[in-house]
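Title: [Solved] G-protein coupled receptor 4-like 3D structure

Original question kept below for reference.
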Amino acid sequence: MFVTSFYSIIFILALPLNCLVLWAMAPQLKTEQCLPVYAMNLLASNLLLLAALPFSLAYVLQNYHWTLGAAACTLVHAVFFLHLFVSVLFLTWIAVMRYVAVGHPLRFSALQTTRCSYLSSAALWLVAIALSSTGAFMLPSHGQTNSNRSSCFETYPVPRDYALFHLVVSILFYFLPCLILGIMYLLIQRTLRGSSSVQAVERKRITTLLAFIVMYFAVLFGPCHVIWSYRCIVVLLGGDTCSVEKTLSLPGQVTLAVSNLSALLVPVFYMASFKSIWQRIRCHTAGT
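Solution (posted by the thread starter after getting help):
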């Protein structure tokens, strides 16, 4: 009941919010700023997730019985993980670029151009697509459960090769980015304290952005990555997978659902942080 209600609320609120913020931020792509480019990519990733969310909701409402076939199951699974990888990669890259802009603006000026932002965005999407596609095709997508239901990505225990793949990916694309984010946050804080050229308003905006990214990582993505990593370690060490899967089944579903809250929080954060978004919304409302 929690999962279905949670997915429904996210979809109903996040879809119009993401579309509204995407429309409001579109004119900023014509400026020389890089951050709007990365922000638009995160919003596009959210819309992909929201497009797949109704299928997951239908699966849960039908008591975890998948009726759309193996190809659709693989596609939905790939989209969910694509959103996860895109979010992690882009947020980490934003943090690194913020540090470069604050700490080494002249030395790495070539990285702060719109051309570089588009090229790096394309590269990050390619990496995310490769990872999500590999994971989706490695895990058996569609099968029959003991109660004669068609399952979708519910393989217990997970195959050893997939467990190894998922554990390595979690280390390289979650735990390592967490470390990078923590280092970037500390370095930016130190640089801002020693800089007299950065105005107080800009200093607060940069600090708020980095704090949001760190909390976003820890609260939304942390629990599901920890649970999945533990499951993979148990499989690789040959432990009692049955008891572990039984114990972590519900927490795994809940933490995965919570990670999808990112589709709602990102546009809310943008609306709170970028005055230009509110200005365009107010101007359009006043004009109508």
